[in-house]
Design brief:
The protein has seven helices and four strands. The protein is an alpha+beta fold.
Length: 207
Amino acid sequence: MIYHLKDNDTLRTEEKEEKDLSKIVFPEDLSLNHNDYGPEDQSFSLSYRSLLFEAYFYQRLGKDLPRSADNEPAFPAIIVERDFFLSLIEGDYPLWAQMYDEAPEAWEEWFVIDNPKKPGSIMLSMPIEEKEIGIHSIKFIQKCDHPLKEELLDCCKKLQESCVLLHSSWEKRDFRFVSFERLPKDFTNKRFRLEAIKKQYSTYKNP
């Protein structure tokens, strides 16, 4: 496992406040079904999910989004080989599958994104919506039975610490959300789509 440490420098970009909340990427827009990374699954667009992942962090951190030495955005993430991640779902020690069944509150703390810069690897990250993010996952891993338990726990703790720091940075910013210019024009988040369905159903029931 590789933990991608964040840089203290920031991106030099102009910011524009995003006032249209339907265009904000929320954690549920990056949520993962249990079978999404099964060997037969080809139902999702890797580039689209990667773009939404980048948008999620940029919309909250803007110019304060950490960057790497080569001036690329640096996201808080644990990077693992895809085969290793699949072993956590279907192997002899299916930690990820157990989390889904036994600790859904921990499962919901994770983003699972294919790494666009290293095919065959996956980025495991967390949202920064809440200061307490990662607590459920740490507790779950502490109780789990896995040969790499200590390594997994160490990586999870480091990731959680980074996300807590980014949450604090987000809380101090002038804008709650900033515009992400590369967001697909037809994107509308799940919250607003669900609201639209509810309103349509209400109109149907009470014309």
